[in-house]
Amino acid sequence: MLMHIDGNSFYAACERVYRPDLAKSPIAVLSNNDGIIIALNAECKALGFKRGDVFFENKNKLEKSGVVIFSSNYTLYADLSNRMNLIYNRFTPDVEMYSIDESFLFFPDWKNEDYSALALTIKKAVTMETGIPVSVGVAPTKTLAKMCNKLAKKRGGVCDWNKLNQDEELGNYPVGDIWGVGPSKAAFLKRNGITTALGLKNYPLHLAKKHLTITGYRTVRELGGVPAIGKVERSDRQVVMVSRSSQSPVYDLDDIILALTSYTQEAVKRIRVEKLSCKFVSVYLMTNAFSEGDQYFNQCSAELPYLSAYLPEIQETAIELLKRIYRPGYKYRKVMIGLTGLEKNDKPQYDLFDNHHEQVKRLEPLMQALDNINERYGRGTLQLGCGVKRRKNEELGMRNEGAAGVALPWEMKREYLSPRYTTRLQDIPRVY
Q1: Per residue in 370-427, pLDDT tens?
Q2: Per-residue pLDDT tens digits for 96-119
Q3: C-alpha to C-alpha distance for 5 and 349, rounded to whole angstroms
Q4: What is the DSSP string of 67-112?
Q5: What per-residue string of b and e applies to 154-193 under the rule 16 or more CB within 10 Å gives b?
Q6: Are 222 and 148 in contact (CB under 8 A)?
């Protein structure tokens, strides 16, 4: 038996945890650079807004409707997500984090266990300890658990497949809403007279494999109560790319270097988490193709002499590449770092005549300390190679990443960003 647990309106719920005054307020969360609405709660949906609405086109309407707007605060969302998964692990050691707000919990087939009661216990624990409301679907397969989770949102937050009139529920469930059935497959099924989950459950397996591929075949089996989709095994990355579009045009090379150092640190963090090292470093620099004026795009790559996950040397290489392709006078909008040639670093191939790896090995505790501090206190708490301009900004009281004040030009536009309540000391809520 397994459970699928989903945070209800997760981003909006995270913003409301430390704002009890917004308990019944409509909330909308915006994408990077405050572009579009990517999340909204039920109160906001009831006003007619939906995911994907362009923010600037709806800004006045949102404000007139009393919608509280937030820029994406991924540091806060990730921390609350980790706390939720820690709670899940108290109830079972077998937890698959499917996305930032969804997890699958795997349980043995206990004969005397009341899974509905257990699901309700987990739901109450998460809400009490994190403030995030969740819904829980209980079923023998992933596909049915996802379906039960959707049903649970309108049935008190918990739905157990074994306590339902199963064929009746499947007969009322649209085939296009089934997990794993995309628009093209749904259209094919409807052309063949299959419009509900019950119809797909009864679809012959040999035809499912022929017309719906192996994914559709597994879905049919899962609807019949036969587990066919196991735990997702994360395959090793082939490439890591990190970039952001700046909120305003950037002309100065030093400002672009500041952005690049921040993105390089994030890229290296990602490969270190997965115990990977890179062989190639690429840097991309571009203007805004949709703005007036001269356009410029360029890219430069370099091969490292050996596989590396050591931030200082990767960052030094990236900055040198940026200097090669930078041209003054352009209104730059985006700089991007790419790490390729990724391999596991547990069995590296060293150069017989170069002992550089010994130096990197000695410095590994330093890198580990950097990773641990940034993991605990939030991305950007410690950074390398911030440069003279960054220190000048601090002297002037300007904002750097992780401090309060005026945003640097290369930072994302986040005019409605909430505090990092759980990862930055100065943002800890005060109780009066």
Answers
A1: 777 777 766 666 677 655 444 444 444 444 444 334 455 556 677 888 988 887 788 8
A2: 988 889 999 998 877 767 899 999
A3: 43
A4: -EEEE--HHHHHHHHHHHHHHHHHH-S-EEEEETTEEEEE----SS
A5: eeebbbbbeebebeebbeebebbebbebeeebbeebeeee
A6: no
How many alpha carbons fall within 13 Å on the CB side of residue 162?
Answer: 14
CATH 1.10.150 segments of the chain: 175-229
Structure tokens at 339: 């790490």
For residue 361, pLDDT over 90 is answered with no
Residues 141-163, mean pLDDT to the nearest whole number: 94
Q: How far apart are the first and last CA of the chain?
A: 46
Provide the CA 326 distance to its chain's centre, in angstroms: 31
Assigned token pair, 337: 């770092």
Digit-coded pLDDT (tens) for 189-239? 999 999 999 999 999 999 888 888 898 999 999 999 999 987 765 556 678
Q: Number of helices (H) and strands (E) in the chain: give both, helices first.
A: 15, 13
Tell me the two tokens of residue 67.
């919608």
CATH for 11-74?
3.40.1170.60
Residues 60-88 have pLDDT tens digits of: 999 999 999 999 998 889 889 989 998 99
CATH number for the region 175-229 comes to 1.10.150
Closest CA to 223 of 110, 106, 145, 152: 145
CB 123 within 8 A of CB 88: no
Q: Are 217 and 186 in contact (CB under 8 A)?
A: no
Ranges in the chain annotated CATH 3.30.1490.100: 239-395
Say how far apart CA 86 and CA 220 lie, in whole Å.
33
Q: How many CB atoms lie within 10 A of CB 148?
A: 26
Q: What is the per-residue pLDDT across 246-290, written as a single tens digit (0 to 9) for each?
A: 767 888 888 888 889 888 988 998 888 888 888 899 999 988 776
Tokens of 210: 């022929």
H or E element, residue 270: helix 253-273
Question: How many residues are there in the chain?
Answer: 432
Are 408 and 61 a contacting pair, CB within 8 Å?
Answer: no
Tokens coding 245: 């579009």
